[in-house]
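Lecture 7 notes: from sequence to structure.
We start with the chain below.
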Amino acid sequence: MAVSKRKRAEYIRYAQYGLLIVIALLVAFLADWGQIRAAFFNVDIAKAMFPSVITVALKNTILYTALGFAFGLALGLVLALMKLSSVAPYRWIATVYIEFFRGVPALLVFIGIYYGVPIAFQMQFPALTTVMLALGGVGAAYMAETIRAGIQAVPKGQVEAARSLGMSSSRAMITIVIPQAFRIILPPLTNELILLTKDSSLIYILGLFREQYELTKFGRETLSRSPSLTPILIAGLCYLIITLPLGYLSRWLERRGTTGSSRKKVSA
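Predicted structure tokens for the same chain:
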């Protein structure tokens, strides 16, 4: 008797479930849980990391990310407007900047600012300034393209209506277009904030005092004094404290935007 496609798909799905259960049971019975616990879940080492991992490392990670995001957002908005400008040199400058910083690893940007600026200009930026410029400089290249796309997604009729009311093009851009564009691009901007949070770990190349450590640097320093990978696990969990809520926020904003667009189409 021939089996229908639906039944065949159901059998395949059950077979996959069974395979996963077998693999889980093999791992449960064959793994050396004592060794795993010692390597990744050393309670004494984890206790020794608190409260500094929260009051120093997590706090600094949030601070560095916020500074980089604020600088990157401001610079990204300027670059986006330059990219859309009718003045050709502005478009060229914005395009060169965006393509360069999107194509160069963020680590090289950190190295260039931290080591290159003192050589070229005989000045040394503080750690906070270095992180802000490096993170924000790289993030601005990505955010500029996101903002540009958001501005272009705003219906042209909005600008035409504003101009018909006597608004100048610059005022219409600031009061009408940009606010609507930001409502459109909030989800991708949230994703960029997550990426900047993880990129803040690149500050480990800088010479920092202990009170300036972020999560990765704090975890590595603790790891060098312990025989367990527990510090790295704790640092990773602290990153999740930041990134998971941001991920849920991004998905909620996407759903809200989709629902809002559907309602507008239905009402229209």
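Points to note: The radius of gyration is 25 Å. The chain has a mean pLDDT of 86.
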